[in-house]
Specification:
Length: 247
């Protein structure tokens, strides 16, 4: 689990409650279920209108990466490729068939299987680069869906405030109730801004980084397996892969 994500969210929300408390505000005024419903549920509904069911479900699955991030160990992948290159040079590329399942990396497994099956190295590289780009585009589309939720949240927050003010104006004959109603109404604006800028957008930036790391990992395997397929010397191949750096 990514404790940094949890820690960051806790610090962000605590800063809001602490500022409210230091300013003499009541904590209970920040807790408003109708405001949360119109901001969170309303933003999700608006995002669904512009999307498809499959994209929304894929986005929710990708959201797990924010707490349970994938591991893309480029240095470990480089060592794996070097080991495969040495074995292929000592024996043959056919001898790598026993190593396919042991890779435990879906993209690398397909790439190595194509190489072992005798696919033309240039055709292999072209197809795999296209596949890596499509994977990246699908992931980015999912993150964009989540990002759109944050884009709608501030507007839904303002709408919630307007609804609250309408209800508050019904109590013009009671100044005390009117003041309380106005205070509660503006909580919706706070929820909209907070949900977008403290939750959605930071998580999306983190997901974009993981998506880029996945693309980098796939590209390393493409270059590495292409090098093995063309019979490139293991030391030269390892030196070329040294240019990949962890994001």
């Amino acid at each position: 689990m990514d404790l940094l994500t949890l820690g960051g969210l806790i610090v962000a929300f605590c800063s809001v409650f602490l500022a409210n408390w230091l300013g003499g505000g009541e904590v209970v005024l920040l807790l408003n279920l109708p405001s949360a419903i119109i901001v969170i549920v309303g933003s999700l509904g608006a995002a669904l209108v512009q999307s498809s069911v499959s994209e929304a479900l894929a986005a929710l699955k990708l959201l797990r990466w924010s707490l349970f991030p994938p591991s893309f160990d480029l240095e470990g992948s480089r060592q794996t490729i070097n080991r495969l290159a040495l074995k292929a040079r000592r024996l043959s590329i056919i001898a790598l068939e026993d190593d396919i399942k042991a890779l435990n990396h879906g993209f690398a497994t397909r790439a190595l299987q194509m190489a072992v099956d005798g696919t033309d190295p240039e055709l292999l590289a072209d197809r795999l680069h296209d596949e890596a780009s499509r994977i990246r585009d699908r992931r980015a589309s999912c993150v964009s869906f989540l990002e759109s939720i944050g884009g709608y949240a501030p507007t839904l927050g303002i709408m919630g405030s307007v609804l609250g003010l309408i209800q508050a104006m019904a109590n013009l004959d009671s100044p005390e109730a009117l003041g309380h109603g106005i205070a509660v109404a503006f909580v919706s604006t706070l929820y909209g801004q907070g949900f977008a800028n403290l939750v959605v957008f930071p998580i999306c930036r983190k997901l974009y980084r993981y998506v880029d790391q996945e693309l980098l990992s796939n590209q390393m395997f493409i270059d590495g397996i292409h090098g093995i397929a063309t019979g490139k010397h293991p030391q030269r191949l390892d030196l070329e892969l040294g240019g990949y750096e962890q994001l």
